[in-house]
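Bench notes, afternoon.
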Amino acid sequence: MVGAAAAMTSPPPPAPGGYAFLDAATLRRVLPLSALIPHFRSSLPALSAAVHSPPRSAFPLPSSPSNSLLLMPSWSSDPSLPYIGVKIVTSFPRNSALHRLPGIHASYSLFHAATGVPLVALDGSQLTLLRTASVSALAASVLARRDARVLVMAGAGSLAPFLIAAHRLVRPGIDRVIIWNRTPDKARILAQSLQEEEGGADEAVTFEYAENLEEVVGLADVVTCATSSESPIIRGAKLKPGAHLDLVGSFSPRMRECDDEALARGRVFVDFEVAMEEAGELIGAFDRGVISPADVAGTLVELVGGAKSGRRSDDQLTVFKSVGTAVVDLLAAQLAYENFLQGERLRTSGGWQGVEEYRRRQG
């Protein structure tokens, strides 16, 4: 054990001032999507096999039968990734109705793998938004048509703007974004906000909202879904040839964002194999004999690593289903911590004026 610890590469030392907390605003600054997507592209094939992530542990809480505490640990056995990480999540589903608060809160802690020394804590909710959107965009960079122009966003929650931004990074030809939500006002408000950020209706990208999803889904070159739906909202018959379908929302057998036809028509990939045990769309399709696990073309690691081919023709429908794992949490936390430290050293050295200037100079 001593030899293994000695061989472990030392991570950068703690930031000036010691143990730090990276809040949501800091994370968005040091972990931009434009950096996280290529980081996943290179690190997932190289390091994912070395990251150990046991099944998450869930504990009911005495405050209410519906409240729970979830622990998601991971650690690396690769000397080039000398970290241990733990995501702690609280789920209080009645928060919105009782307290006007989000139902999910999370924190992420990063430790030195050789010594166990705590290095940094991160806003777990923001980390999850950034890594989830980056994973979807990385898959789309291989699976979506290069000439994609229309993006349909199903869902207008906290993840939606991240998914839209990430897909636009990998498919910069997207010039029309249509947002749908079960509550139309939420879709309208998000579309208006994004259009204002873009600079108005005269800009190259237009943001719209739709009240009827089935009327617009057939226009989409890329459809991305981030909902908690338990019944299909995307029907395979409505998807046009060559579309790419990104499914993010479901993470349990009872949840389902698309019907069986979408899976039967498509070339299906998953983020990790565990998706075939957790995603309601896949579990149901397997049980009904629509597709089998052998019909899943591969994982994201196989796709970006070149072990499996992606889209085979311009008319082929592709599907990517993600459920998220502690592997991408650890890799995202690694990049956030190391970027933060680099920016802090530049700030305290007096050479540059803060992390913002560092990020600007890095482009």
